[in-house]
Amino acid sequence: MQVNATTASTDWNSVLDAPGLDETRFVNDDKLFVQFYRKPMMHLGDSKAAGRPIYREVDCIRIMVPGDKLSVIDRPVDSIDARRFAARYEKWKTGQGNSVEGTPLTALPRMTSGKIEEYKYFNVQTVEQLAAAPDSLGQKFMGFNEDKRSAAAFLELAKGNAPLEKMNEELKSRDAKIEELQVSLEALTKMVNDAKGKKN
């Protein structure tokens, strides 16, 4: 059998970075518990050349479905992870830590500090994560289904409040402009009155 010497090997990095990958599969990524960290890993090429183990710090990622301790992805960060979790990854790289985005569980009524700690153990740290948590988490402690319904209702109510919050911000902005105009009008009135007083 003859091997064609002109055949090039496939550069898988260019395939991973190719535009047009189906990004819709990552729609619910905001519901995941994602943690970035650095881990020393042995570099085989340098270790072999040096005749001793050579380690390099590598950026790694841990991805979990909140409430499911059995489905954990733990690996070095690849280009898809860097693109998929770009905002969180950049925050972590700039030293802001592993920030969790969403509404904290403390915002829910009747949520005790003990329950919050229990949920944190299962990596459920936000109201959004609680509302999307799998029902199997309910088998682990009491009151889960009620808390999940409460979280879903809280988020639904918050969606309804969004237009009101926007309107309040616009009203505050308008009030600030009106106050600024009133101050300007008072200053102009004073200047006109002062000018009239000097003429008389």
Commentary on this structure:
The protein is of the alpha+beta class. The protein has a domain of about 140 residues. Helices cover about 50% and strands about 10% of the residues. It contains seven helices and three strands, in the order αβαββααααα. The chain has a three-stranded antiparallel sheet with strand order 1-2-3, with helices on one face. The model has no long low-confidence stretch (mean pLDDT about 80).
Count every beta strand, where a strand is a DSSP E run of 2 or more residues. 3
**What is the topology, as strand order, of the major beta sheet?**
1-2-3
| Helix share, percent | 40-55%
Radius of gyration: 28 Å
Q: Approximately how much beta-strand content do the residues carry?
A: 5-15%
- Provide the residue-averaged pLDDT: 79
Number of helical stretches of at least 4 residues: 7
Order of helices and strands: HEHEEHHHHH
Compute the separation of the termini in Å: 114 Å
Low-confidence stretches: none
Question: Any key phrases for this structure?
Answer:
single chain, 200 residues, alpha+beta, 3-stranded antiparallel beta sheet, 3 strands, extended
Summarize the structure.
The protein has helices at 12-16, 44-50, 79-84, 86-93, 113-121, 127-131, 144-199, and strands spanning 33-42, 55-64, 72-76.
Task: Give me the secondary-structure topology.
Elements (H helix, E strand, L loop, with lengths): L11 H5 L16 E10 L1 H7 L4 E10 L7 E5 L2 H6 L1 H8 L19 H9 L5 H5 L12 H56 L1
Antiparallel strand pairs: 1-2, 2-3
